[in-house]
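Letters spell out the chain; backbone shape is given numerically. Take this protein:
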Amino acid sequence: MGILKYYSAGQSTPDGGEPMPKKKTELPLVVLMLVILVSTTSCSSIASKQEPIQLDEKMVYIPPGTFLMGSPDAQGEKNERPQHEVSVSGFWMDACELTNRRFKEFIDATGYVTDAEKRGKAWIWDEQWKEMAGADWRHPKGPSSSIETIMDHPVVQVSWNDATAYCNWAAKRLPTEAEWEYACRCGTLTAYSAGNTISHDHANYFGSEELDIWDGTSPAASFPPNPFGIYDMHGNVWEWCLDYYDDAFYSRSPGLNPLNEASAPYRVMRGGAWDYCPLGMRSAYRGADFPFSASDARGFRCVKPIDSPEWQSTPPQKGETKGMGD
């Protein structure tokens, strides 16, 4: 596993490096007890508000629109420039990242075997990145781990190939990179959809371990949605996108519904993750990796074009939701 620039403690690592999370800070015992007391109360409240909502079966309508994609000159990474105007057609997007529960339904129905299962190993973070024998979607951290108690968390250890297989089965697809950023931004030009800074009240990311109740992924919809009604676009798990990755694609990107279909070694992933610092969670940040690669911080969500025959009965409205049986 290896890919673009990742950040460590707010600094870039060399190209091709792994995401190197910051080492956890050792806090004095008294301070640590106070942090745990305050943060557990706060985050438990957030989680308890969301738990009754079965959002992992819902899709939200994202209306058509035009936005500025990427980052202005002198901001962000080189591969986020030039900032350019893009228009996208309306589409439906999963309200949440796909959960273990939903992915298990696919496996039970098809008998599909993931790339990590075929390889017999996958990447995990354990104070450093390493390939763990026996790590797969059922055992995210290795053979001794299980998803039995985290069925409402995003599925991880899924490659781009695995995500595409699920989408095909569900009659959906992965979002294009442009659709993903459009849905994430919600009309904003700031670093994140909620502003130019982000906190543990809005996302699950590295550096917030002492301030939340999760050691790894958080349950779907544990944090407030963005204005479109989409959850966890920043942090929790990286999300695979449909495009091949090209660091210079923005210089030749079409203005309407862009999709990079030019074959390349990597596929795009967006959004950052629980093991990643805030710089990589920005709306414009572009990550990528091999389509067969899997880790305990990779997941996905699906989209469905507006022209899907079964959903053409009435013109959809912004924020409208549909479930699996609708």
Summary: DSSP finds five helices and 14 strands in the chain. Residues 4-53 have pLDDT under 50 and may be disordered.
